[in-house]
């Protein structure tokens, strides 16, 4: 069965329907791109799948458990231990250096200082930004900051990475490079990825594409031409 699945989920903001009955499934280690025009519900779907937002109806199961029935505390623990989250920008703590930022999730999870620092340095190295370890975000380019954010999202070796337009604030070339690194490092350790993206060449990165339109999965499917 799927690692993570949504069945017939709906979600509105006041009178504005954002999701109107969406089914979704993610297999272990699978990389799925969620695409579609602005306002079609991509962010809402990602937030529901990640347990950040509650769906109004329908079920979301993670490893066969209905996480909609869980308390906020249990959902928050799930996000800290099994999930990684990556947004467009603004995720690094400006007062902390790169290595301190990347070590933070491990420290919060109870790792020792030395162990957390070693792991953080290893991840900065994997993302090609080891030389920036002692820099603060304000001294880095957008691409460098986002590479640090990728390291921070993956340092806990999550089972699922949720990435909401992670390259949306970068120029086209840097965006493509960073997206390639997200996919490469996630694949390396078998992390599944739900990737909301506007990158045109999504077929180069994702195993499968789910195209949304007006809060439902577009039945014609292949919005940008990914073949499963
Ligand atoms: P996308 O990520 O595809 O741009 P969203 O999930 O952000 O789509 O939004 C889906 C719909 O829900 C849009 O009509 C949007 O305006 C609306 N929406 C999203 N977030 C909110 C919110 N916090 N309050 C009110 N409406 C919202
Ligand atoms: P995205 O780039 O994911 O589409 P948006 O720029 O649409 O994000 O939305 C950014 C933030 O504003 C999100 O937290 C979203 O929930 C909220 N938002 C989006 N649409 C609306 C809306 N119509 N009314 C209020 N908040 C909204």
TrEMBL record:
Query: What GO MF annotations does this protein's record show?
Result: ATP binding; ATP hydrolysis activity; transmembrane transporter activity
Key words, A-Z: ATP-binding, Nucleotide-binding, Transport
Superkingdom of the source species: Bacteria
**For this UniProt entry, which segments traverse the membrane?**
none
Matches recorded under Pfam families? ABC_tran
Q: Which GO terms describe its cellular component?
A: plasma membrane
UniProt KW Nucleotide-binding keyword = yes
ABC transporter domain sequence ranges: 4-228
Name the InterPro entries for this protein. Answer: AAA+_ATPase, ABC_transporter-like_ATP-bd, ABC_transpr_LolD-like, MacB-like_ATP-bd, P-loop_NTPase
Q: PANTHER family from the xrefs? A: ABC TRANSPORTER RELATED, IMPORT ATP-BINDING PROTEIN
Could you tell me what this protein is called? ABC transporter ATP-binding protein
Organism, per UniProt?
Paractinoplanes rishiriensis
């Amino acid at each position: 069965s799927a690692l993570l699945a949504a069945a017939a989920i709906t979600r509105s903001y006041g009178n504005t329907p954002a999701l109107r009955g969406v089914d979704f499934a993610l297999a272990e280690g699978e990389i799925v791109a969620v695409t579609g025009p602005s306002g079609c519900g991509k962010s809402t779907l990602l937030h529901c799948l990640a347990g950040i937002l509650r769906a109004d109806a329908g079920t979301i199961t993670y490893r066969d458990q209905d996480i909609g029935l869980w308390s906020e505390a249990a959902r928050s623990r799930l996000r800290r231990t099994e999930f990684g989250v990556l947004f467009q920008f603004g995720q690094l703590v400006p007062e902390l250096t790169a290595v301190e930022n990347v070590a933070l999730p491990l420290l919060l999870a109870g790792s020792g200082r030395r162990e957390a620092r070693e792991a953080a340095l290893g991840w900065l190295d994997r993302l090609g930004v080891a030389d920036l370890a002692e820099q603060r975000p304000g001294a880095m380019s957008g691409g460098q900051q986002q590479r640090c954010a990728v390291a921070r999202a993956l340092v806990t070796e999550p089972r699922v990475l949720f990435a909401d337009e992670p390259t949306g604030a970068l120029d086209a070339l840097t965006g493509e490079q960073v997206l390639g690194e997200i996919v490469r490092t996630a694949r390396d350790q078998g992390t599944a990825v739900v990737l909301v993206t506007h990158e045109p060449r999504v077929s180069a990165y994702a195993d499968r594409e789910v195209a949304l339109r007006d809060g439902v999965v577009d039945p014609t499917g292949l919005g940008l031409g990914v073949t499963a």
